[in-house]
Amino acid sequence: MSVDIPKLALAFGSVAPPQGDVVSCRVYLGATKEVSSFEVLLQNWDKKYSPGGTYPISVGLDGHIDIGRGTNVPQIITCRVESVRFESAPNENYLRVSGRCWGEKLFRRVVTKTYSSQKGEAIVKDLLDYYVGLSHVRDSTELIETTDTTFTLLEYENTPVWDILLAIAAASDKAGVIGFDFRVAPDGKFEFFPRNSKTSSVSLNEKIEFSEYRKDIHRVRNKITVYGAADKSVPSDKDAWTESLDPADGIWSAVSGTLSFDTGTKIKGSGCIKNYAENLYYAGSLFELDSGKEVNTELYPSLNFYVRRDSSFNGNLNVILYDTANKTATQMVTIGAGEWFRKELGVGAKNADFWEVESGFDWTQIAAVRFDCWFTGSGTGSFWVDGLYFGGRRYSNMQEDSGSQTAYGLRELVEVDEELWSDNECMLRAKAILAQLKDPAENLTIRSTVIDYGTTPILAGDKIHVVLPNENVDADFRVLSIEYYVDAKTQTLEITMELGREVPLLADYLYALRSKTDHLSRYKISRVL
Fold first, then answer.
1. Of 32, 202, 231, 291, which residue has the fewest beta carbons closer than 10 angstroms?
2. What CA–CA distance (Å, rounded) separates 381 from 311?
3. How far apart are CA 152 and CA 418, in angstroms?
4. Residues 280 and 142 both lie in one domain
């Protein structure tokens, strides 16, 4: 197959070396995980490109490199000279010029800022406009595409712009698929788009001179465990145990005083548990769980409740836990008068030092909770309990694939995502990750000196179709990186592409708008108790 010899045009600042001075030119285009770069080797006749020469080339200059065939010589990269190296021999002088695309601006700045309830694209635009200074509009078209992801709360302190962009791209989803790519296009414009949404128009049919197809199991994971927010509770409705004197899981009774269900003084739900004591030393309220409903506080390590007292009490409240053998663990807390106070007490063996624990007490079999509110001497008054529950367990789910385990061995992955607020959300996330990671990734290296892309060069992040009959490959691949190499001696333009193919990571939560935090920040807005 015959093709036109390569042509190129380049400029560094106001200096435009002619093609005859170019010994070799290599342009490497990357996306998302890396920025593009270049290296040009020039004949430095009469040291004209040296300092003090006729056309000096120095570091810091902006420029561009255009590569093509025939009359089509499209721009491949908008660049910045970051290194110049002068190489001399008795009869020869060369200049090696290298640098990166304008994506190098993404590495210059760090960010200290909070983003609250903002869409992914809004955060990216803010970074580009106020920290980087890269244009993201081409011919009035916005190049930062919209996402379906709202980030609840992201807090950054001296965090590089590049790291934030990576995290936003990895977490954002569009139309049910997670993952965005970003790149600095040949014209220096910043593009942010859903992964696999850019398709190259170039056909590779009969133009691939070398190919290496491989499957890689390094990424395979076939047992996925996902943990969500540490907000799972018993009962799941955090107010259910104080919505009646005989709720579904147990029953309330008075140890001292008279119990009633009070709908007027409540802080949550429709009512609360009231204990009225008259001329007594204390008022005591006991909640006993039905058999089979005992709570394992090693799994649910916090006891939560609201409490309120009249001013006639002295402020001391004993909280007593009973196990199935009627052994106890006791902790005294103090509370003010005339208003509701929320209490969260650590429970379980790790928190035993805060309790007076009877020997042999079993933290895994909590059968009852008792509240004793004391007078100084004897007295009369009421105290109330509302919103009683055990909590602090992470939502979770585990998914595995036996076929993948048989083929590649057990390969596990554990993920903690503070934005998952139910076991069901953890299940959806685990299934999505398993579907993506249970099979090997496919990778392909292709090389050719006869590809003619006309005026539309292939870019990293593009999707391109590849047919390799010998390897039984007929599929779309994503361009991970691409290198354009011009050799003046052989008058060839060699194009090398690294391609990848993997199952898309489907968005969970039924493709709904969702909040995501990222791996740089795990802050989020708390749920209301």
1. 291
2. 8
3. 11
4. no
pLDDT tens track for 295-345? 999 999 999 999 999 999 999 999 999 999 999 999 999 999 999 999 999
446 has a pLDDT exceeding 70 = yes
Q: Kindly state whether residues 237 and 172 are assigned to the same domain.
A: no
Token readout for 19 is 């093609």
Rounded Cα–Cα distance for residues 173 and 187 (Å): 26
Other C-beta atoms lying within 10 Å of the C-beta of residue 111: 18
Tokens 């390569």: give the residue: 6
Query: What are the φ and ψ backbone dihedral angles of 263, each rounded to 5 degrees?
Result: -95, 0
pLDDT tens digits for 335-374?
999 999 999 999 999 999 999 999 999 999 999 999 999 9
User: Residue 161: which region, alpha, beta or left (left: phi > 0; alpha: psi -120 to 50)?
Assistant: alpha
Contact 475/465 with Cβ under 8 angstroms? Answer: yes
Indicate whether 386 and 238 sit together in one domain. yes
Q: Which domain holds residue 241?
A: 232-393
> What is the value of pTM for the model shown?
0.75
Banded pLDDT at 524 (limits 50, 70, 90): very low
The answer to whether residue 266 is domain-embedded is: yes
Provide the b/e sequence for 440-479 (b: ≥16 CB within 10 Å): bbbbbebbbbbbbbeeebbbbbbbbebeeeeeeeeeebbb
Helix (H, G, I), strand (E, B) or coil at 421: coil
